[in-house]
Amino acid sequence: MPPKSKRSLQLKVARRHRHKRAKTQECSSTMNESISEDVTEEHIIDTTLELSSIANPDDMSENETTEVIPVSTEGVVPVTGNHGATTEEIIPTFSDYDSQDDEEYTSPGETATEDELIHGHAKDWISSLDRDDVMSLSLVLHHLIVNILGLQLTFAAKVIGDLIGKSDRTVREWRGTFLCNDGSFPGSLQGKYQRTGVLEQNEELNKHARKYVRENANVKGRPNMTTASFCQWVNNELLPNSVLEPGFPRKISVDTARRWLHHLDFQVLDRKKSVYIDGHEREDVVAYRKKFIRKMVSIGFINEDNAPTAEASQCLPEDLRCPSEEQLQKTIVLFHDESIFSANEDQGTQWGEKDNFAIKPKSKGSGIMVSDFIDEFNGYLCLSDSEYSLAKQTYGDNITKEARQFLEYGENREGYWTSDKFLTQMDHAVKIADIKYPKDQGYRVVWVFDNSSCHNAYAEDALNANNMNAKPGGKQPHLRDTVWNGRPQRMVFNIGIPKGLIQVLTERGKYHKSMKLEDMRKEISTHPDFMNEMTKLEHFLRDRGHICIMLPKFHCELNPIERCWGQAKRYTRSFTNYTLPRLRINIPNGLDSVTLENIKNYFRKVRQYMFAYLEGFTAGPDLEKTVKAYKKVYKSHRKIGVNS
User: Fold this and answer.
1) pLDDT digits (tens, 9 = 90+) for 313-328
2) DSSP state, 466?
3) What's the sign of the alpha-carbon dihedral 368, 371, 375, 376?
4) Which residues lie closer than 8 Å to 268 by C-beta, 6 or more apart?
5) Torsion of Cα atoms, 405 then 408 then 411 then 413, to 10°
6) DSSP 3-state assignment of 332?
7) Own/partner pairs for 299-305, CB < 8 Å, 24+ apart?
């Protein structure tokens, strides 16, 4: 016999459904003719109350009797919920119910009938039940209405839904669920489903997506990354070039891309000052950061005694882990930085009427640059009155009481900050340090600077490849003589003309005819004499017996004076009147608002970052979480023996 076609099977099933539906409607119409059409929600409540009195005979007085109507129980399935409650336990009883004032169910000027009061109490009682009990009660009422009163299923569901505050569709779904689960209700899964995203399942996708956002979110000369551009990159490059398990999506929508970005801890932010991430983790910067932290360990700035945790102390280099007590006590580390305070800078927020904001100045206005030094033990670098008297006897008028210097920058004011002006300030600062921390008492002073152009300025005759031309002569400086492979080498011909890169590399045997100017500069920059050339600042401090250390590039979090600037600017912005004379008054007051205790806390914060880098963390959320965890360890007075 040939197999039946799919269309014939569909027609056969449709005929069966029509026959069944016609038979059901015929039976329902027959039953409805013998039943009063006035059956409403109140009739259901009356039936529920009668069942309540039967289920709780103890609540009736001795003189009360109840006529029990015999009801056939043939085919009735006992109802149980997840909590094991039987029908008798969930039938409403009002003897133990906290009665409320009848006025609650009536409007002003109206008198509530007995049926209205009972109706209101029944709804309140049902609202106090939990989900499983309400489902069981709805099934009991459904059985009473359909099998005893003979109403249609849909009408019964609507009446019950109005009573319990649910839709008729929900009541029908409960009944179907009960019949499909062998006479029980399954537990609710609300709040129990753990959504697992695609990025959580695949660490490689997570890693590549995070790297892409960090490198492309904001690139100079290109539009900022958007959710749509990120989505396009995922669909065109990330997913096609990744090994994905079955079930992984091959394309995502813009909404999904937005959820991915939130999952990666990225969000849309306003521009504000923060750590410069783009160059923060460059290979050369990370390599120098390791050298810098090793230097700070060697001078005793970070050690086992000031480690935030025992695990962090184990990351210290073994050969530098235990400096001497004298070395710890006699080493003074001075951090330096410059900052600009502007007259038109304010708090940035204000109270005002909606859509009626005060107009702010378009520019920052006139400004004052401040250059200063701090150490952990005395705060800002300055002399006391007695120390200043001693310094006057030694240096005369060539020394100031404090190392701080102000500059009202601008062409029509005091000009701009240059390396020569900075070295003039350094001359006063070194004299102050020699008076305050004398070498004959065992002190050694270490100066720490960032990588600004003033600090990295070279002398005119310094070995700097960027100042050299390819050919002899021209507008290039006369560089000083040097030593190459143990033999002296002059950088200028006997007639006084600079040799240039071609001649110098030829004498060193490193020149090739195919080399261009950039290639020659890159080659000679790798030679030891050019690599180890010191800046004017380093020469200045070495000649005076002091130590100079440069911070890693883009690492402002390792300079404690940066936080002093932030605290001082909070003061100046709170008391500004947008004029330069007021700014001259506010800046010293703002700097003085930074106490010695604040400075010590800022030094502690810098050490926390250094230890976090020693533990292998890089810039990002993990680094900040680690530093915050260090802070909790410091603040807790109950953690005894953490550093032991």
Assistant:
1) 888 887 776 665 655 5
2) G
3) positive
4) none
5) -110
6) strand
7) 299/323, 299/327, 299/331, 299/333, 299/446, 299/547, 300/327, 300/328, 300/331, 301/331, 301/333, 301/446, 301/607, 302/607, 302/610, 302/611, 303/328, 304/643, 305/643
pLDDT the model gives residue 195: 52
Q: Show Cβ contacts of residue 173 under 8 Å, excluding neighbours closer than 6 positions.
A: none
String of DSSP letters for 488-523? EE-SB-TTS-B--HHHHHHHHT---TT--HHHHHHH
Highest-pLDDT range among 83-87, 354-358, 502-506:
502-506
CA–CA separation, 122 vs 92, rounded Å? 8
For the chain, give the percent of residues with pLDDT over 90.
39
- CA–CA gap between residue 331 and residue 31 (Å, rounded): 102
Q: Distance between CA atoms of 172 and 159, rounded to whole angstroms?
A: 12
Residue 607: Cβ within 10 Å count: 21
Break the chain into its structural domains and give their ranges.
41-58+77-180, 198-263, 283-349+366-454+536-635, 465-531
For 73, the token pair is: 């129980």
Mean pLDDT (whole number) for 153-182: 81
Alpha helices by DSSP H, 181-324: 198-201, 203-216, 227-233, 254-263, 277-280, 283-298, 310-313
C-alpha–C-alpha distance, residues 210 and 202, integer Å: 13
- Model confidence at 508: pLDDT above 60: yes
The rounded distance, in Å, linking the Cα atoms of 344 and 633 is: 40
pTM: 0.59
**Which one of 3.30.450.20, 3.30.420.10, 3.40.630.30, 3.40.50.1820 gives the CATH number of domain 283-349+366-454+536-635?**
3.30.420.10
